[in-house]
TrEMBL record:
The species this protein was found in: Streptomyces flavidovirens
Keywords: Cell membrane, Glycosyltransferase, Membrane, Transferase, Transmembrane, Transmembrane helix
Keyword set includes Coiled coil: no
Full protein name: Glycosyltransferase
Highest taxon, organism lineage: Bacteria
Localization in the cell: Cell membrane
Length: 558
């Protein structure tokens, strides 16, 4: 009893600290925390709450019951709309803290603009998928049609595409979670997902990871439906959704491999072979949908798998498996934040418990529940996503959003089960409320902790790029720099790295500008710069900037 009382005190204290910490972040006092990073108090509080659970009893305070009754009067769709509105509001506010496109964003932006205006696609490579630039081109076209809604340089139009993808994925998450749990618990899943730093950090950016996650989640739903509903034709929908995810982001191949392997392990090969013609037909449709990609890959690389292998080779890893080491080191806190980490850990526990029951059922013992194989599928898929992507590429939270979503869905169900039938509604209401507060706190962390670095770098690159673009006066121009996508977008010129420049033949009549910064990356020293300009007349000028890489030296070859 004394142990449980002590655990109860610890639970209350650390939960209060977690809440106070989020309130401080929302109020703008996150600078008191190292790097604006909140401490994981809830990872201490959660096990303490479990230990003290017998002290709760089954009698819920009347005021809690009245509060839950009030919340139940609000329809689930209203909560969903509210969460989506909050997500859009956070997206809008964060635009002011990172108004310029980052490296990855600029690559896709340059390609999108090249299709609309015929400008160079600086930074583009054959390993990049065409889905996001296609959506971006549509956004730029609509922005022009609306009188420049996207802003003078189109950043707003492209970021609006990112907003649509984010809202779409959040909606899909709600619908999928509602199909597996209930509508109100699905709302909790969505708000917990949105509160995570790993997810919210990328909501304002023009990237393809969030949108691809929504499509992958639909694939998982269709596979589950194919097994759980007798005679279901859900498998026929898998190729279309999987292909859409693939052309949006080639990196989903690892996710799809993990999901496919998990499906076989969870349901067994015989269950899938029983699908018969539906399985064969889905496979044929998938291959047919990949034919354009294979044809293009053979043209560009000489191999049908050349573009996918090229994408893998771009991984910024020190050794094979360092991505997996990263995920092990940051799981679950750095992926989903304080509250999300607790929910993900609960989800992993729930998947393990379901696996034990399934194995016990195979051994002749009773206890397997109707949804246990689905939970095993979800949990196994999540784990394999970490393993497959961790071995194939470097580690980043945005690469494993599917795993985060699946464990969050499992975790919300697990929290409700651990709380017990009487307490499940009040506990989930508290989780949702805390997650709502955490969304606002995480937005502050993103704005003041994560975004200042890229924004400061833009203080160096953007003014120089714009000056070079203005000096070209519409003539063909090429910028050689270690920041080629950003320079391409903000100058309107083509842009390459110094390594690429040494191997290329510059078209006649092109104005070439060699750019080096005081503290820039991937650039030659003074002697190397002089060798590149040897034998050519040139103009040299310096451009002072406020950014972290310092003053720029621009050598324009004539």
């Amino acid at each position: 009893m004394a142990r449980r009382k002590a655990a109860g005190v610890v639970a209350v204290v650390f939960t209060a600290l977690a809440g106070a910490q989020q309130a401080l972040l929302v109020a703008g006092f996150g600078g008191w925390l190292p790097g604006w990073q909140p401490w994981p108090y809830l990872l201490v509080a959660a096990p303490a709450w479990l230990i003290s659970r017998p002290l709760w009893g089954e009698r819920i305070p009347p005021q809690w019951l009245r509060g839950v009754d009030v919340l139940r009067r609000v329809p689930a769709w209203a909560y969903v709309v509210g969460v989506l509105a909050v997500a859009a509001g956070v997206w809008a506010v964060l635009q002011d803290f990172e108004p310029y496109l980052g490296h990855e964003e600029a690559v896709y932006a340059n390609k999108a603009r090249s299709w609309v205006e015929g400008t160079p696609d600086a930074g583009w490579g054959v390993y990049r998928p065409v889905g996001l630039p296609a959506l971006g081109a549509l956004g730029l076209w609509l922005g022009d049609a609306g009188g420049g809604v996207g802003g003078a340089d189109g950043v707003g139009a492209l970021r609006a595409v990112a907003l649509v993808l984010a809202l779409g994925t959040l909606t899909v998450t709600y619908l999928v979670a509602a199909a597996w749990t209930s509508r109100r618990r699905a709302v909790v899943v969505v708000v917990v997902l949105l509160s995570g730093l790993g997810f919210l950090r990328r909501v304002p950016e023009y990237l393809n990871d969030i949108g691809a996650t929504g499509l992958l989640l639909i694939v998982v739903l269709l596979l589950v439906r194919a097994q759980e509903k007798e005679g279901s034709r859900a498998l026929w929908g898998v190729p279309a959704v999987a292909l859409a995810a693939f052309y949006l982001r080639y990196g989903v191949v690892g996710n799809l491999l993990a999901v496919g392997l998990a499906a076989v392990l969870a349901y067994g090969p015989r269950a899938w072979m029983a699908q018969g013609r539906r399985l064969v037909g889905a496979a044929v449709l998938l291959v047919i949908g990949l034919v354009p990609h294979f044809w293009h890959a053979v043209r560009e690389t000489g191999s049908p798998l050349g573009m996918i292998l090229s994408a893998t080779s771009q991984a910024n890893r020190a050794y094979v498996g360092d991505g997996l080491v990263y995920y092990l080191a940051v799981f679950p806190y750095r992926l989903a934040g304080d509250l999300g980490a607790v929910v993900m850990a609960a989800g992993l526990w729930a998947a393990g418990a379901a696996l034990r029951r399934v194995l016990a059922g195979r051994g002749g013992r009773c206890g397997e529940r109707p949804d246990d194989r689905r939970r095993v599928f979800q949990g196994t898929a999540a784990v394999l996503v970490f393993v497959v992507l961790g071995m194939a590429t470097d580690g980043e939270p945005r690469f494993v959003y599917l795993a985060v979503v699946l464990l969050t869905v499992l975790g919300v169900e697990a929290v409700a089960g651990l709380a017990g039938a009487a307490w499940s509604a009040p506990v989930l209401a508290a989780v949702a409320a805390f997650a709502g507060l955490t969304v606002l706190g995480t937005a502050q962390v993103v704005a003041h902790g994560a975004m200042p670095g890229p924004a400061r770098l833009a203080g160096s690159t953007v003014p120089v790029a714009r000056e070079i673009g203005a000096a070209a006066q519409g003539r063909p121009c090429l910028v050689v720099t270690g920041y080629e996508p950003e320079f391409g977008w903000y100058s309107g010129c083509d842009a390459v790295t110094y390594a690429q420049y040494r191997k290329m033949r510059v078209p006649e009549g092109t104005r070439v500008s060699l750019v080096v910064f005081e503290r820039g990356r991937l650039q030659p020293d003074a002697a190397g710069l002089e060798r590149l300009a040897a034998g050519r007349e040139s103009d040299v000028r310096t451009i002072r900037t406020d950014g972290p890489v310092g003053t720029a030296t621009v050598v324009t070859l004539r």
